[in-house]
Design a protein that fits this description.
By secondary structure, the protein is an alpha+beta fold. It has one domain (11-109): Electron Transport, Fmn-binding Protein, Chain A (Pnp Oxidase, Chain A). It contains three helices and five strands; from the N terminus they run E-E-H-E-E-H-H-E. It has helices at residues 32-39, 72-85, 87-91, and strands at residues 11-13, 16-20, 42-49, 58-68, 98-109. It has a five-stranded antiparallel sheet with strand order 1-2-5-4-3. A hairpin with an 8-residue loop joins strand 3 and strand 4 (58-68). The longest helix has 14 residues, at 72-85.
Length: 110
Amino acid sequence: MRPHVVPCCFVVDVDTVYSAVDAKPKSTSLLRRLQNIEFNATASLLVDHYDEDWTRLWWVRVDGGARTVDDAAERRRTIELLMAKYPQYRAEPPPGPVIAVDIDCWRTWP
């Protein structure tokens, strides 16, 4: 089985990374990322920074258990955090499921 890589908007709250299915057009409502969480509840998120000055390159990777958020209060808090970070979400909050990755491990470079 190959990794399924999906770009996403995200927020970190303590030791959990959150992302939500937003209103951008999708080819289907049966998203593979959600099916993958049901099949194998592990995930990684990689964030990198590129700069022409290679002394400024960096990346962070988190690995952990993935889940779809069922708790209404946790979902509401996540949407508020996403709206605070991304102005686009203030106009149109994500209507879809919220995904949480409970972080087990942080890796960084340099």
